[in-house]
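Ligand-bound model needed. adenosine monophosphate.
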Amino acid sequence: MRDVVLPGSTVGILGGGQLGRMVAIAGRRMGYRFVTLDPTPDSPAGQVSDRQIVAAYSDLDAARELAACSDVITYEFENVDARVAALLEQESYVPQGSRLLHTTQHRVREKQALQASGAEVAPYVPVRSRFDLEAAIRTLGCPCVLKTSNGGYDGKGQWIIRDKEDVDKIWPEAKEAVASHEQDADEPLVAEKFVAFSKELSVIVARSVRGEVQSFPVAENIHRGHILHLSILPARIPQDTARRAQRLAEQVAERLQVVGLLAVEMFLTPEGRLYVNELAPRPHNSGHYTDDACTVSQFEQHLRAVCNLPLAHAKLTTPVVMVNVLGEHMAPLLQAMAHMDARIKVHLYGKHEAKSKRKMGHLNVLGPLEEALAAVRELGVWPPESLSVSE
Ligand code: AMP
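Prediction:
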């Protein structure tokens, strides 16, 4: 068995955003030291690390410096430059490896890997041309969804096609998005059947260097404007569906030989089928509830997995609703804090600019769903209709 990486060691984090910040907060409590690499000085993770290297993610010299001062390296985003990943693996210890990054960086590769792991994905067709797209629409039917194969997030690089006439408008936009991003020349886009889901779910699963696997409880996720708005725990689904979702995530993590965390996003259909939509090989926004409502947080579990410590059994300790705080919510939220119910746990990421739609923090609101939502409504920060969640 490979040795464990003990507290006192230095963990290098590629990426200085909120995910790195929360990993560092969990790790400092355990006695690890942290170095972050990020281009923005005083980044969210840099603020809680021993040191930040201020440089572009693709800067090879900076990556070499990170390697030189870290005992183990992890990343907090998946679009890691392949040359940087190779250098870090050569010059330091990256237990997560780079194979999974390569898979999840491209939607078509990711879907193929999922299918090979025995997971169902929505029917899809790789698209290289307008001709391919028209053929895909005939195969999949409408509505369907066109997505860039890499680089898309929070609804960017994504178009719903409701009718074949939409192609005239959407194709030029998609081509432009492909041109402005370095897309894989082979299969720059993918068309997917639109899944009429009843719920969006996610399961975060950890697999350690020694091969231990533990999944977190299933989160029910509600998006607004393509950005995660609420995660509801426990998810309002039958118990056997929750068990199936957890087993599916564990199976994918085993088959892909994941080390660290893997977030598995799924669609649940009214007939009870689970389609995997997307994977993220890192801590995930839908797992932020674990900090306050679980026997172990996703951030500690991630460190345990990459440092080869025994994994904790992840169990929900209380019902909870996680609410994302975006730039436009910051000012009213700060105003509301003077009178805020203490069951609302506030997490803010220390970002300097509260731009609209930018993720600035989140709230973990402890307690049964209706009570938690009522407490959030009281704050007057979110439009009340966004806090009424029908089954
Ligand atoms: P993604 O970038 O793939 O995570 O998609 C963002 C969001 O778009 C998902 O969380 C869904 O709400 C919606 N979406 C994406 N793909 C589909 C699909 N094939 N069918 C229905 N909704 C989808």
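DSSP finds twelve helices and 17 strands in the chain.
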